[in-house]
Fold this protein.
Amino acid sequence: MHRILLTAAMLLFAGNALWNQATPAPQQALQWGPAPPVFQPGAQMAVVSGDPSKAAPFVVQLKMPDGYKIAPHFHPTAEVVEVKSGTFMYGMGDMAKAADMKAMAVGKSVDIPANMHHYASAKGATIVQISSMGPFVLTYVNPADNPMKAAPKAPAGGH
């Protein structure tokens, strides 16, 4: 058990060291586009460094409009989320509870361990920078929250 904890701690410190070495690109140099389809429509994403589809460190920024919500979810890798603009609201657990959310202002960051269930929303237009190890995977606690899962279509004619 001690060996597992020691290994996990070493991986966490190594990940943070890699994260701190990443040099963010200036805001104007970022190439913004729609966030991947695993996110609800409305958010935009830009890659700062690395390739989120590869098994290597990456840094992305996520731009969210006021009121944007990300339902409870988790990732197989740890992540560091830093607020670049606006106010980022986040909470931990399987159900989004506004009363349990914590507000993060510009310059603040939070380390979220691998497989930790969490949720988020934007208060005002908000940009966060996410550093993690790829490949990027987001799994919703409730699969119905996944926008990639199309709702079944009703048969033509309403039958």
In short: The chain has one domain: 2-146. Confidence is low (pLDDT under 50) at residues 1-25. Residues 2-146 form a domain with the Jelly Rolls fold (CATH 2.60.120.10).
